[in-house]
Structures are given as structure tokens and as C-alpha cells.
Specification:
heterodimer; A: mainly alpha; 14 helices; about 0% strand; B: mainly alpha
Chain lengths: ~290, ~100
């Protein structure tokens, strides 16, 4: 995968801000290790804790009531109509057939999350080990060689297994993403940014596939996402495969564009040393630091 | 309760107690790194609980997403903060070649 965006362009400024400016260390350290100097009175902590006990009891009572008020016909209805869903695993039957809308919106939320993280992007995407370091780390190399192919194979298996056993696209996508994150952190793979066209296409592919299938079945069944008879199984399996890949790509992109990456814009350091991009919006008049100052 | 004291019952009880204990430590700790480690441990224990409840698919998602991906995201952000604070000199963030 390669994208049109060139991350190299920002590296020079990013490296400069990393080493050359005076970041106020005192502002970051309390976040890493709290010395307790800013604690409120201990009695307050205990009072909040005591208040939480009745809240927990109420929650437990509410959950009990919710379990009782569940329509007792639902499990039987699902079991009765399961053969019509095209799959034999009731969870997949509900998620991708009876309640396809829910899954469609779930994937849309994931895409929105990726766009949100993407919008926080600081322009430089360097993290993990230095390039080529994985080759010098025998344990890491061995783990990569064993874990990555296993994860890929298991992901394919889980996608297929979802139609009959408890598994599915989200689990498969998460596993794939785990392998992708491992490869990225070890600097074996360098994923393109979320701005790259292939990433956009694959990430949107899950939602788009759902919508296209949902509309395409309209002339045959007259309802959105109501699969025609005999077509349910292949359609669900195809959607699951597209979803697994989309979920994996979106999750890896959350790592590529994390805003914890060094700021190319050194003025942000004076606003908020933790690199919170909101700092720019909250204090737009912050004076840029003298580049030569320590 | 006339519930017989089976191995499964004891195991479930231990998992439940471990979850509560981990959350308590997680809320009380003053070290961010320790909090991240406890969060990952909590996610993996929760996955175990889902397996015991007969939901291996949710267990898989919890282990991969809750413990794995989220934990790695936290660690990534922590590392960034640690380098900025000068607290972790062993792993300098290297600029790309």
C-alpha cells in the first residue's frame, strides 16, 4: 500500500522541534507520575466512594429489572427464523441480517473515529523502533515471524467461521489490525496516512458495501438490506470480508495518525506541552517561541 | 445458597475478584505506566470472564481491541509524553531517515 502523501516533507521541522526547543518538562511530569500534591482532602474521596455504593446497588437493581422485562418471545423467534438468515450462528444472523442497520451504523462510527483522529494529525508520522531495528532484535523478529502469519490465517478463518460459530468480521479485523500494528511498531511496514486514497477507499468500503448491497436488493425484496432468498449467505460472507479489512485498516490508521507524534509546529509547545491540538484553538494568540531559545 | 463448590465456581469467583481488585488498583495508582499495564491486565481478565460466560466472540474482541489495540495506543501516547518529559531516555524518538 502506498499513498500520494509524502510524510518525508515534514520530517525536518518535526525533528527540529523535538530536540531544539524548550519544552517545559514540569508540565508533563505530573501527568506521568502524580506525587499527590494536588489531591483534595481524603474525606472527600471517601464520601464519593460511599455515594457510589447506593449508585451501584441501583444499577444492579435496574439491570435485574431489564432482564425481567425482556420480551421472552425474542429467542424463540430468532431460533425459528434462523434458517432464513443464510447463516447458522444466531449472533451473525441477528447482526448481519435481522439488524443489519445496527452493524452498518457501527462501521460508520468506526469510519467517523478514523476521520476524527485524522483531523488531529500533526503532519509527521514516526513512531516505534528506528527503521531496520527489528532485524537486530532476535526476539522481536521471531515474534513477528510467528505471530503475523498466524494472525492473518486466524483472521481469514474467523471471518469464514462467523457464519456458523461465535466469530465474525470485527474479531477478524481486530486480529488483522493487531498484526498490522505489530509490523508498524517494529518498522517492518510503513502504512500510508489516512489521507491516502487506497486507505480512504478500503476504510469506506465496509459502509459503502453495506449501502450498495442494501440498495441493490431493493428491487428484489422491496426492503433495504433484505436479502433475496438463497443470496443471504454469499452476501453476508462478502460483507463480512469487506468489513474485516475495513476494520483492520481503520484500527491501524488510528496508530499512524495519533496526535502524540512530535509537533511540526513548535508554537504548539508553548500552548500545551502534552501536544493537545485543542491548545491552538484555545489560545490562538500564544506568541511563537524564539527558535534559538533553550 | 446450595450451590456446590465446583472448580468452575471457584474459578469464576477468582476472576470476578481479580477484576474488582485490578480496577481498584487502576483507580488508585499514581503512575501512568502502571495504570496502562493494569488496564491491559484488566482487559485480558475481562476476556477470560467472557469465555467463562460462554461468549468466546466477545472475549476475542475484548482481548484484541480492549487490551491489545487500546493498550498499544496508550503506550504509544505514554512513550511520547515520557520522551517530552525527559523521563525515558532509553528510547529516544528517532526522526525518520
Amino acid at each position: 500500500m502506498s499513498g500520494p502523501t509524502d510524510p518525508q516533507a515534514n520530517n525536518a521541522t518535526g525533528a527540529a522541534s523535538e530536540t531544539g526547543t524548550g519544552v517545559d518538562h514540569a508540565h508533563v511530569r505530573p501527568l506521568l507520575e502524580d506525587d499527590g500534591s494536588r489531591d483534595g482532602p481524603a474525606i472527600l474521596t471517601w464520601m464519593v466512594g460511599l455515594l457510589l455504593v447506593p449508585a451501584g446497588v441501583l444499577l444492579a437493581l435496574g439491570l435485574r429489572g431489564a432482564a425481567d422485562s425482556r420480551d421472552p418471545r425474542i429467542p424463540d423467534l430468532i431460533a425459528e427464523h434462523l434458517p432464513e438468515t443464510g447463516v447458522s450462528n444466531p449472533v451473525t444472523g441477528v447482526l448481519l441480517n435481522f439488524r443489519g442497520y445496527d452493524t452498518l451504523l457501527e462501521v460508520a462510527v468506526l469510519v467517523a473515529a478514523m476521520v476524527a483522529v485524522w483531523s488531529l494529525d500533526r503532519g509527521q508520522r514516526v513512531f516505534g523502533l528506528p527503521a531496520g531495528r527489528a532485524r537486530d532484535e532476535p526476539v522481536l523478529a521471531a515474534v513477528l515471524r510467528l505471530a503475523v502469519p498466524t494472525a492473518f490465517l486466524t483472521a481469514v478463518y474467523l471471518t469464514w467461521l462467523g457464519s456458523s460459530e461465535p466469530a465474525g468480521a470485527f474479531q477478524a479485523g481486530a486480529l488483522l489490525a493487531g498484526a498490522g500494528v505489530l509490523l508498524t511498531v517494529a518498522r517492518v511496514m510503513r502504512p500510508p496516512t489516512a489521507a491516502a486514497l487506497p486507505v480512504r477507499i478500503i476504510a469506506a468500503g465496509g459502509v459503502a458495501g453495506f449501502v450498495v448491497v442494501g440498495i441493490a436488493v431493493l428491487p428484489f425484496t422491496g426492503a433495504f438490506l433484505a436479502y433475496p432468498e438463497g443470496w443471504a449467505y454469499p452476501l453476508i460472507l462478502g460483507l463480512e470480508a469487506a468489513l474485516a479489512v475495513a476494520v483492520a485498516v481503520i484500527l491501524v490508521e488510528l496508530f499512524v495518525d495519533v496526535p502524540s507524534i512530535p509537533a511540526p509546529d513548535s508554537t504548539l509547545d508553548t500552548v500545551d506541552p502534552t501536544g493537545d491540538p485543542l491548545g491552538r484553538a484555545l489560545a490562538p494568540d500564544a506568541t511563537p517561541p524564539d527558535p534559538g531559545a533553550p | 445458597m446450595t450451590e456446590p463448590l465446583t472448580v468452575g465456581f471457584v474459578l469464576d469467583g477468582l476472576v470476578a475478584l481479580l477484576l474488582v481488585g485490578l480496577v481498584f488498583r487502576l483507580l488508585r495508582t499514581r503512575h501512568l505506566f502502571e495504570a496502562i499495564m493494569l488496564y491491559v491486565a484488566y482487559g485480558l481478565t475481562l476476556a477470560l470472564a467472557w469465555v467463562r460466560l460462554g461468549a468466546p466472540d466477545i472475549a476475542l474482541a475484548e482481548a484484541a481491541l480492549g487490551a491489545g489495540v487500546t493498550g498499544a495506543l496508550f503506550l504509544n501516547a505514554w512513550h511520547r509524553m515520557a520522551v517530552r518529559a525527559g523521563a525515558d531516555e532509553r528510547l529516544p524518538m528517532e526522526s525518520d531517515p
